[in-house]
UniProtKB/TrEMBL annotation:
The lineage of its organism: Bacteria, Pseudomonadati, Pseudomonadota, Gammaproteobacteria, Chromatiales. It holds the Pfam family Cytochrome_CBB3. The chain crosses the membrane at residues 12-34. It comes from Wenzhouxiangella sediminis. PROSITE patterns: CYTC (PS51007). Residues 89-169 form the Cytochrome c domain. One of its GO terms (molecular function) is iron ion binding. It comes from the Bacteria. Keywords: Electron transport, Heme, Iron, Membrane, Metal-binding, Transmembrane, Transmembrane helix, Transport. This is Cytochrome c5 family protein.
Length: 170
């Protein structure tokens, strides 16, 4: 190998080394900047709290008098949150319930749902009477799902919507 060749190699090699060193320095500076921005005091406190919350045990161990009280409170809270929800907060506003639940089918006549016209719903009430229509609306009939598919509607709420429907065809 010639001396000329060696010199050229050393030059190229130094250039590559210098480039790598510069790259390392840039990476270190970037890391410092990111670290400063992401982990300053206040934010890391919030982070810490979030981590602690995620680390909470799923179940609790209760012992003694205070433990019994805590267990009871936890059981009551669980029972309260699993209480059945009544649709529309128990409202018996037939027009509102019709609009939110029944109109989907009864406005368009989807699947053969009687529309609020004399020839359809009007004919049914003349034929069967209000009581039968209410009980069929509650229990379902053919393609008509029980309670219009909203099992959280009470009997009174379904009856109120039927009354609203019948008012429209009088
Ligand atoms: C998924 C569509 C759909 C929804 C939602 C729906 N209905 Fe119906 N409804 C029908 C169909 C279809 C019929 C016709 C059933 C039959 O007689 O074959 C029907 C029939 C009825 C009848 C007549 C029953 C009879 O004995 O002739 C009443 C009353 C009624 N629906 C009330 C309601 C009320 C009140 C609601 C809302 C709480 C409601 N429907 C929501 C599809 C629906």
């Amino acid at each position: 190998m010639s001396e000329q060749h060696d010199r050229q190699f050393i030059q190229t090699f130094s250039a590559v080394l210098a480039g790598l060193v510069a790259f390392t320095v840039v990476i270190i500076i970037l890391a410092l900047i990111i670290h400063d921005r992401e982990f300053d005091g206040e934010q890391s406190a919030a982070r810490q709290a979030a981590v602690e919350e995620r680390l909470q045990p799923v179940g609790g161990v209760y012992a003694g008098e205070t433990g019994r009280a805590a267990a009871q409170a936890a059981a009551e809270a669980a029972a309260a949150s699993s209480e059945p929800q009544v649709a529309f907060e128990g409202s018996t506003d037939g027009e509102m319930i019709y609009g939110r639940v029944c109109a989907a089918c009864h406005d368009s006549g989807a699947a053969g749902a009687p529309r609020l016209v004399a020839g359809e719903m009007g004919a049914r009430v003349a034929d069967k009477g209000r009581e039968t229509l209410v009980s069929n609306a509650i229990n379902g009939i053919n393609a008509m799902p029980a309670r219009g598919g909203r099992s959280d509607l009470s009997d009174e709420q379904v009856a109120a919507s039927v009354d609203y429907m019948l008012d429209q065809v009088e």
